[in-house]
Amino acid sequence: MAADDTLTNIARRRGVTVEALQAANPQISDGRTIGIGDEITISPIDLGSLGADWNAADGINDRGQVVGSSGHAFLWQDGKMTDLGTLGADWSEAHAVNDRGQVVGSSGHAFLWQDGTMTDLGTLGGDTSGAQDINDRGQVVGWSEVPAGDPAADLRHAFLWQDGTMTDLGTLGGGWSQASAINERGQVVGTSYTAEGDRHAFLWEEGRMFDLGTGGAIVSDAFGINDRGQIVGTAFSDTEMSGHQAILWQDGRMIDLGTLGGDSAEAHGINEHGQVVGWSWTAIGPVHPGELGGGISHAFLWQDGTMTDLGTLAGVDAGSRAEAINDCGSVVGSGSGWLEGGHALLWQGGGQPPGLDEDPLLNTFVVTVSDRLRVRSEPRVSDDSTKYEPLLPLGTELLVLDGPVSASGYTWYKVAPVSFSRLEGPGFGWVAMAGKDGEPWIGPAE
C-alpha cells in the first residue's frame, strides 16, 4: 500500500464500498492519509441462520442474491434469509444462483428452484445426484450416481442438464467424475479419475472432455470457470494430499497463486474481472486444546498477482473460507469458531455491472442482423481488446449477458452464442449494437 493512499483509493482497488471499509476501520477517516504500516481490514457480514448450528454461503449472483445451507437450502436477499424447502428429505443445500434468480443444489436429488418451486432434476439412473452450478441460459451441471453391478461402488458421473434432459458427460477413463462449474459459453469444469486411477481436473466442451493435467503434482481439481475460459482449482503435491496449491489455468499454463504464509491454499471461484477467491493457511494461528498449533485457514481475494487476506468474522478466531465472487466484487463463504457452529459470510463489494436492471435487452435473445460481426474481449476498440476470429455470421442467435456500455463511439453488449454448431471460434464476448451510422448489427430474436 502506498504511503499516500486514502480509503477511497483502497476501496476502488479492492472493489468494496468506502462505507464497508469505514465500518471495518473506524480508526481511520476517509480524508486521512494512510501510512504504509496502517492495517486496513474488510470485515464480513454474518448472514444469519434458519436455526441450524452450521451455516455456509456457496453462491452469489450479480444482483447480490446469496444461496447456501442452514439445515435447508436458503436464498438471502436484502437482509432476509428464505428457506427454500426440500424434495422430501430432511435436508437440502443450495450451491449456485444465476442472474435470473434460479437456484440449484441437492436434496437427495439435484434440484432447480425458481419462483417458489423446487423441481427434481432426476439422476443418471443411480440413487442420488447433486447440482453444483447454473449459468444464465439455465444449463445446470453437477454429479449423479450411475447404475453399477457392485452396489458398494462409488460410481458417479458429471452431468449437464438442460430443458428437462440430463446428459452424462462421461469421464477421463475412470469410473468417477463430477462437474463443478459452467460458464455462459457452456464450458464445464470439474474432476475425474483417469483409466490409470489418477484424479485430474477436466474441461468439457462441445461433447469432449479434456484432461487439464496436474503440472507435476499428483492430483488436480477444477472448481470454477469464467467466460474468458480462466479456470481455478487446486493441485496436491503429495499422496496424502496435505500440501496443495491454489491454481489458475490460463493460456495453457497452470499458475500457482501462492498462499497467505502457510503451506496450502485452494481457489474456488473467479469472476469476469479475473478476481479469484478461495482459502489459504496462514503462517500462524490460534492454538486450541488438542491442536498442534500453526496456521489457520483464511478466505482470500487474489488479483493481479496479489493475494489479500479477507479475515474472519469479528469474535471468531478459527477461520474462514471463500467460495464465490460476483462481478461486483462481493464474496461469499463461511467461517467457524473454536467449539462454535459455522457462519454464512458475505464480504460486500462496491460495484454494479452496467445495465443490470435498466436495459430491456439483458437476459434476452438477439440475432446478428449484419454479416461477419466482430466480437471483442473488452467493450472498446483498442489494442488491448482482443478481436476474436472468425466473425459471427448473419443470423447467429446470442444471449445478452451484460450491458450496455458506451465506449469508442459504440454501444456494447456482452453476449454468448446459443449454439456453437455454426461457429468456428469462441463467439462470446462484447459486440457493438450498431454502426456509427446507426445501422443495427444485432436485433431482437423472433
Please give a structural write-up.
The structure is a single chain. Strand 24 and strand 25 form a beta hairpin. This protein is mainly β. The protein contains two helices and 35 strands. Strands 34-33-32-29-35 form a five-stranded antiparallel β-sheet, with no helix packed on it. Strands 1-28-27-26 form a four-stranded antiparallel β-sheet, with no helix packed on it. A four-stranded antiparallel β-sheet has the order 2-3-4-5, with no helix packed on it. It folds into three domains: 41 residues, Membrane-bound Lytic Murein Transglycosylase D, Chain A, CATH 3.10.350.10; 298 residues, 7 Propeller (Methylamine Dehydrogenase, Chain H); 80 residues. Helix content is 3%, strand content 47%. The chain is globular, with a radius of gyration of 22 Å.
Strand percentage lies at over 45%
Spatial order of strands in the largest sheet: 34-33-32-29-35
Please name the CATH architecture of the largest domain.
Answer: 7 Propeller
- Rg over alpha carbons: 22 Å
Terminal CA distance: 52 Å
Largest sheet, described in full?
A: 5 strands, antiparallel
Look at the structure and give the CATH class of the largest domain.
Mainly Beta
Low-confidence residue ranges:
30-40, 287-294, 352-358, 420-425
Question: Care to count the β-strands?
Answer: 35
Helix content: under 10%
